[in-house]
Amino acid sequence: MNKQTTKLDDGRLLLSINKDMYDNESVLRAAHKFTPHCYLHVEALSPTIIGVYFKSKEGSQAAMEEIVDGFCNELIDEQVRTGVEKACGQIRDQIVKKAFAPVE
Amino acid sequence: MSYTLLPFRFDRFNGDEVFITNEVGEFMFASRSDLERLVTYGLDPDSETFLNFKAKQILTDTAVESVIEMLATKYRTKKAFLNNFTALHMVVATLRCNSNCRCCQVSRKDVNDSQVDMDKPTAKKVVDTIFKSPSKAVKIEFQGGEPLLNFKIVKYIIEYAEWKNLFAKKRLEFVICTNLTLINESTLKYLKKHHVYISTSLDGPKDLHNRNRPLQDTDDSYDIVVEKIALSRQYLGNDGVSALMTTSRFSLGNLKDVADEYIAQGFNEIFIRALNPYGFAKREGSWLGYSIEDFVARYLEALDYIIQINLRGTYFVEAFAALLLTRILTPFSTGFVDMQSPAGTAISGVIYDYDGNVYVSDEARMLASTGDRRFLMGNVHKNTYQELFNSEFIRSLIGSACLECLPQCSACAFQSFCGADPVRNYSEQGDIIGHRSTSDVCKRNRMIIRYLLQLIRQKNERVEDVLWSWVSRRPIVDDERGVSCCT
Description:
CATH topology of chain A: Gyrase A, domain 2
Strand content of chain B: 5-15%
Structural class of chain A: alpha+beta
CATH architecture of chain A: 2-Layer Sandwich
Structural class of chain B: alpha/beta
CATH class of the largest domain in chain B: Alpha Beta
CATH architecture of the largest domain in chain B: Alpha-Beta Barrel
Number of helices of chain B: 20
Oligomer: heterodimer
Strand content of chain A: 15-25%
Strand order of the largest sheet of chain B: 10-9-8-7-6-13-14-15
Distance between the termini of chain B: 56 Å
Shape of chain B: globular
């Protein structure tokens, strides 16, 4: 278990995420993708930390830890996507706008 | 910063590899470290990696405006299926049917129930509505039930449409979807005269077909269907008759036999389709059904088998793979009403029920037959064309059926190859947006697209030739001998 993950008394795992590294949007997108695998709850724990709670639908603690590890990898991918969107989302808008503009 | 990033999407592929697509679906494979260098502006502009990304318009080191212009042109090409609005108009001539298919998705009615026949006033209104479509090409597809049970209305619609087209001058096509068991030479002469194509159902070899599709008065429909396919071809030619299959639990483990049957019956294409959750099929789910994972596993086995058939010299296409490959490998538009973005519901295809009710898709009509009219557009007797096709309901539906705006789809690397289906989302998951992570359709599409990409990645020349022959719809030619390799 990585040092950002805490096992809670009720069996849930809590992943603490630094807001300086990851946008809210990235965390939510990653959480949305993992809803088939477990129950998740996302909450701001402090001005700089987002907490993601993982609760098993079924399966072992080891399986849950693997899910959290997978979530961390997905979170990195989602943050890259968020970064790309910020860098060139406007370009996409221009492409689509031009594509559907009347042809002169 | 020596370059500008252009919009792209990515997904992990194999091991260290990522699959990257630009805004119009042009793709490449790269390592994770190359992706990291790309997004941190750490690429060496003299490197081959840089040039690869530039060639795929994932970055540019020139003026952005000219690249936007080029990508916009490509985007417009990809979405060209939207140009002319609704081209496919399905017409339910009757809900009566003489078949007794266990997987019936339209909740057919008794063969003697004439209350469910389309009448002439409705048929006239339907054709009038069809010809208000701005589309330069119109395909009228007769559905049912069994449309031959109300052939007089089919004829009326054909002749009235042809008359209207003398003035409208559209590219007008007719297709009749029939089990063929009631067809005779007189009907075939008529269909030939009016250039009507036939689409029938063939679920596999005799035992499979009979198990899935018995008739009401006999379990042995196969012999009749095969005989009538041959008869129909005498009048309409080989290309005038096509067949579709539906995969039931019984056929799932026998898809290779189904493919062999199609070849034996002279078809050069098969569309391996999973059972959809509508009508009697939904009711009989436990009898007929299987998991989507099972379906995809069997589908991919059958796909490999079909590729081997091609490699041995017989040209035979798996249609769903061909559609996806066209989207992956070419810049061209492929309108496929069940899988496009925006969804084809109403704006590409629409269905007119026997009573004049208009639904956004055949699946929507199937839902309505079980009592859920969520996707009813209106009725040809009560609503104008504008009220049917330009309503707030349609605008809202289409607005919720663009992959570019849907959760997960908006960031999916496979977006350009895939499509939205709000009716399916609603039927399976309870809302038109749907939840991608638990969606069977998403799972199916992702697994099959991924497999096709792996085939492309392997760069096996002979397999590539087969895949391209499906895209180009032409058999492979032996370059040395200049002859077709395939029968």
